[in-house]
Every structure is written in C-alpha cells, then in structure tokens.
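Mods, move this if it's the wrong board.
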Amino acid sequence: MKATGVLVTEQETDARALPPRETFPAFYRREYPKMVAIAAAVSGNRAVAEDLAQEAMLRAHRHWDRVAIYQRPGAWVRRVTINLSLSATKRAAAEMRRMLRISEPSALPEPEAADDRIWKAVAKLPGKQRAAIALFYLEDRPIDEIAEILEVSSATARVHLHRGRQALANALGPEEVSA
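Not the wrong board. Structure tokens:
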C-alpha cells in the first residue's frame, strides 16, 4: 500500500489505526490511589489495602502489553484489586478463627479502632456488596461498569448494591445511608 509516496506495510497501517497506548507510569499514577481506596473499602484495613493495591498494579505491570490494549485497563485492575481484597479478607477471617481455637480469650488482639462508622459497617458486608458499594460511592461508577468489573449482570450488580444499602440502613439507620 502506498501513502504519500511511502511504502507502508499492513502492520504499520494497523498500528496507525490503534489509539496511542498509555504508559504504565501514567496509568499507575492515575489508578493507584483509587485502587487503595477500593481495597480499603473491601478489606476494611487501610494498611493491607496499600499492599493489595501494589499487588494489583504489579500484576498489571507484568501483563502491561496485554492490559494496555484493553478498552478500559482500569476495569481490569479494579477486578484484580477486588479479587485480591476478597481473598485477603477470607484469609484473615480464617486466620482469626484459627487463633480463636488456639488462643485464650484474653490473649486475642484488640480490634482496630474504626474512624468511620459507615466504612466499618461496609467492611461487615459480604464481598460483592462491599465491592459494589465501594465502586458506586468511592468512584461514582455506573451500574453497568460495576457489573463489568464484578463480572456479573447489571441486574445482579443492582441487587448487590441494593442489598448492601439495606444492610447498611439496618446497621446504621436509614438516615445515614443515601440511596
């Protein structure tokens, strides 16, 4: 194929049609703080959230050649962050159950002081509800994006959000939960 007197290969033509890819450092700077917030909301632990967000971004970096060409690479890293957060929460709960079996009640660590009643209540929700609440309220994500990130239908995402709100209203009182 000739373009303005220069021979252009088919591969070069295809590359010109693609939008420019974002660099990983730019992606990291934009997405990392958001991933920490999501991981904190889902895991209920800010210190652990930073590690989880780092791990999600490390996985994005390892697969950047593939992730960068996704239409929305941020959705991919959100899904990884949520999966890691849910897994960490399950591991922590299992570890606590093991500690309860082998420890004296007086030897158990004190629970962390929560500085925000609402997010403490969110941390008690089931995983998908926590994730839906975090994505909706922290990032103002529409239902369709929440569904895509959670890999569920839009109707199921709405159900997770509704049930999460209901549980929060029951725990906190309806005046503290906005619909």
